[in-house]
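Its record is set out here:
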Amino acid sequence: MNYWYTLLLAIIEGVTEYLPISSTGHMIIASSFMKIAEDDFTKLFTIVIQLGAILAVVVMYWKRFFQSLDFYYKLFVAFIPAVVLGLLLNDFIDSLLENPIVVAVMLILGGIILIKVDTWFQKNEETDAKNPNKNTQISYATAFKIGLFQCLAMIPGTSRSGATIVGGLTQNLNRKTAAEFSFFLAVPTMLGATAKKSYDYYKAGFELSQEQINYLILGNIIAFIVAMIAIKGFIDYLSKKGFKVFGYYRIILGIVLLLIHFFVYRLTV
């Protein structure tokens, strides 16, 4: 790990965390090419800098985070499935993180879904245009179902934001509302993941050097700034254009990753 890698990984995190293109997949790919993916600190770094991305959501939507207790209750309900499955399948999930083929395949499959999703749920936007606010209400049942979709993101390459946004669309939410709830749900989810990863790192007997602490500080700052820009741009684009471009990007990236792995050199993570 060095400062250049810190900068690059933080930019990737900030850009990809809230876009439906899989931040985990991109971090695995990038760290693999850097040949630092197997390093324990790298694994910690890629999780902890999510705190910067979390802060971006809180800052941009700070009024929503202080509107009512009901808001937090719904986030908690949506968060429960990931906690339960995450604890039950922890070792299996870790094994998937070491397989770049899984990342590539899920990028492609998710891309195909995103190409089709605008057509599948066009009625959500049409209904919202005729009756504003009809497709912006999130019940406890809807929150829980979106939380179930979030569990799909435990498979690297799936995309947490992509899974939760599609989950929201299946519950008749419009694209903007589904995306924003996905952002909000990221806060407890990533806080939990960061806490667990940090505890595991400490429990394993590792200690952070001053330089590593500097990497974490810099990484969080960069991830925060980039995520702020990415969130605003994504919401604006999504409201007008939909998901297709992200679907095509995922498919192209997945295919390129498979070609590199099988015909150039074996990616190891």
